[in-house]
Amino acid sequence: MAKASKYTSRTPDENGVIHWSDEENKIWSELVARQLKCIEGKACNEYMEGLKKINLPHDRIPQLSELNEVLLATTGWQVAPVPALIDFDEFFRLLANKQFPVATFIRSREEFDYLQEPDIFHEIFGHCAMLTNPDFAEFTHKYGQLGYAAQKKDRVYLARMYWFTVEFGLMQTDDGLRIYGGGILSSPGETQYVYSDTPEINAMNVLDVLRTPYRIDIMQPLYYTINSIHDLFDISQLDIMALVEQAKELGLHDPKFPPKEKLAS
Questions:
Q1: Are 108 and 88 in contact (CB under 8 A)?
Q2: Which fold has domain 22-250?
Q3: Per-residue pLDDT tens for 40-75?
Q4: Residue numbering of the annotated binding site
Q5: CA proximity to 116, closest of 220, 38, 197, 217
Q6: Kind of pairing between the strands at 176-179 and 170-173
Q7: pTM for the full predicted model
Q8: Annotated binding-site positions for Fe cation
Q9: Alpha carbon distances (Å) from 234 to 78, 140, 229, 231, 237
């Protein structure tokens, strides 16, 4: 089950409108301005093209209906308002129906730089531009269908694939390394970090990805790269569940990070 969040999502009114406060709109505005500067020359072309299409307002949080209009016209996707945290079942069900879950709350000033649960800035700024791309959209849709049909023990493997693509995916291009993963694109720290000498960056191998442990609360020690966004479409056509079976037989790779410290009881 989804763990508790200290945030509460806003409920849209009868017209589907969410009434954000001036302070919430100000936080959005500051986050967007900072991150647009940060991703310059680092985000992949597909993301930058998608950003033009969704035409995000800079002075206020967009209404979901504004995004839905563009997503529906480009790839048939929609965004769906959800509570701050949802369980795997609901997450996969939404993706299987071409609905991208968006938690309708925005981070507080105290967590301006980093928060563990995905807020509306992460979901919209990080992911929605990429959802205008047909290859990315098809990969995400297929992923949702697989996950919704999968058993609980297999979903953990699938979660790794999502983590190293949709959230933390990188691309090798003629212009050098570019970012397409929303977890990086919405984080100033991680955007800078991937261009440092610290992380290990490997070419995408789906079986390896399914076997690679990760932690959500640290900078990633390892990233995987694709060569073009069409690679995601090609991956979506593989027999991924057969690869999950293989990954289970082979076992996990050793983690490249220390275990999480247990809090003293």
A1: no
A2: Phenylalanine Hydroxylase (1.10.800)
A3: 999 999 999 999 999 999 999 999 999 999 999 999
A4: 122, 127, 167
A5: 217
A6: antiparallel
A7: 0.94
A8: 122, 127, 167
A9: 23, 12, 9, 5, 5
